[in-house]
Amino acid sequence: PISIITGMTPLSPVHILILNLVSETGPSIALGLEKPDRDIMKAKPRKKNERLLTRKRWMRIIFESVVLAIAGIAVYFIASRYNEGSATTAVLVTAFLSRLWHAFNSRSENLSVFSSKLENNKSLYYTVFGTLAILGLSVYTSFGNAIIKTVPLSLELLMICTAISLFPLIIMEVYKLIRE
Question: Would you place residue 31 in the very low, low, confident or very high pLDDT band (cuts 50, 70, 90)?
Fold first, then answer.
């Protein structure tokens, strides 16, 4: 979506590959180990002929995708003031972080990330920590810079990436509150 809107390609194929392999795989497996909500048995069952991906769920998926894309576009335009390498790396870092925060948000469709009703999922914490370590090695080592085609980000730009990466989490938390 960013390349369509901006006319530029901020992520290379290797960025997309590492993004999908590292930031999606571990947290997805950890989410598969998530215990169900405590109140799951209080929910009404799905209708027999109701699809798993209903219109309502598709709208949520599209909404979340748009919010994630806006975060990527925003950080690209902010970081492009530095240089192209920083802008590309900033988009990669923001996408990584957004996906990690999104994993926490995906633990429950209805409960807040901060809800005490959610069970502790140590697997998710471990995979997020491991993913952050891989991201750090990709951005802040010469080996990672050469293989992944990144540049080290300044502390200022890293803080901007972190702040913008929290935007989708905040928006989805507000969405959960409004939906209730």
Answer: confident
